[in-house]
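Predict the 3D structure for this chain.
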Amino acid sequence: MTREEQQLEKHFRDLARTAYQRGIAVFSDFLNLNELNIFQSLRPEFSYLKMESFGGYELAERQIAVFRPEAPVFYVDYPICCLKITPLNVKFAESLNHRDYLGAILNLGLERTCLGDILVEDDAAYLFCLERMADFIRENLTRIRHTSVYVEQVEAEDFHYEPKYKEVGGTVASVRLDKLLALAFNASRSSLTGLIEGGKVFVNGKLVTSNGYEPKEGDLVSVRGMGRFRFQGTGGQSKKGREYVTLWKYI
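Done. Predicted structure below.
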């Protein structure tokens, strides 16, 4: 475990102690997949607390963790704000990608831990951020590359997101993680082995380092830096005994 990971574990323990001693919900900043995995690994240690995470919408990759009392009536209001970013003049707007939006926001002097996912649509983007940073972003984010933009807050009940995906089908010798990755990303199994062993692959938010791991139907597989897909299941065997599988690759 790296020094940074040890510090993160200590931070989680401090949050848990505060939640228990004061009987309140205590939140982290936004966490990436590896940090969320460390959070999940500590569940047995804090069985006397409720541990949850959320990123503003159902499929969020970056999420905020919360430690709270076990009381069933305890209501948790995550300190997350959704901001919609649109060009002031659509006619003269550039085609902006995720990197463009993220770069412009970080150039305001913000830390990545203040920011959740950025969902890029054809004519807008939705940014999830810590509630305390929302006004600062709204007031200071006025341009992305050469495009002037307008930022407004979107209430949770007004945000509706349908993830886009393409269906990928094919056959595999067996339903192993490395074989599904090769199918999803159209790459050789050997070129992806390092990703799994290097701690970059997560199944339902949990780190998996075994190439032979067998995902179950409905599992969400995330690969840092490459994307994610959902394993939809198998559909019989080919004449050569290979398994037909279907994946939903998110785009």
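The two ends are 32 Å apart (CA to CA).
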